[in-house]
Amino acid sequence: MTEKIFEYKDDKDWYVGKLEGDGFRFSFSSAELDLIVTSLNNLLLNEDNHFKIALGVIKYSSPYRLIHFYLELINALENRSLKAVAHKGAVLVVEKEKVLFVHVPKGGVELSAFLDGAELDFGDTILIATRNEGKTKEFRQLFAKLGITVQNLNDYPDLPEVEETGMTFEGNARLKAETISRLTGKMVLADDSGLKVDALGGLPGVWSARFSGPDATDAKNNAKLLHELAMVFEPEDRSAQFHTTLVVAAPNKESLVVEADWEGYIGVEPRGENGFGYDPLFLVGHTGRTAAELSAEEKNAQSHRGQAVKKLMEVFPQWQHNL
Fold first, then answer.
1. Domains of the chain
2. Which residues participate in catalysis according to the annotation?
3. Collapsing DSSP states into helix, strand and coil, what is residue 206?
4. Residue list, annotated binding site for Mg(2+)
């Protein structure tokens, strides 16, 4: 097996893992951590793989983070789809809607809270509040690696359209997510994304999709943008950002909000065949390439949506824990 180093690091937790064949090692001596990882090892790993994971723990604060990271190693080693789910103070390990392991903190959790009759949401499906297949395709590629199935509003043709009347990206995203969640009873992710051009005072902004008028198309919007910047000649004066605000809503739950920007410049002519919207005009950083010239993998790794989804995944478990 080709050696690969896995790492998770934030302000409170830092883990490093490696798949190898020369022993099962830890760099810590905590009884709690040893119990967690040994239990996962014995319950989940095939017997032949019991000594093929090396794990280093530099900083530790969260059982969820540790379990989530260790499951990544097991999934890579055995091609599985194990996931960690935070629920009412406990951490569940699930696979294909089966609970395989439950970790509770020292002192336990309240039984009445844990068994409150609510269905556990394992995050296997999320409804994206859009009918745009291009946007859905990007989210589907981003969520696929997390084992999450993505639906969009085309799967719910009877739902009414939610008019975007907000004056901010968050206002529009919140309106869509919370309205559709209330109508369907499902966990819903809505985004409002757009292009902010500094020379135009942040326009087209929340009006990006309809910048050229009520009958706007991508081609018309791009043509209008080039017209508006016709007298702006210096590249540094054509700076812009793709912005995304993501809102996740669930019934009777405070919504989760994350934001991200992708820095770049507006070119003088469209280039590239990939992407959609303003991608053919958006020069990524100082690369000289437009967003439409990037592969899907390249774009997802750095785009505003890719960055926002990464931020979302960092805070989503705790938000889900409080469902």
1. 5-114 (no CATH), 125-321 (3.90.950.10)
2. 192
3. helix
4. 163, 192
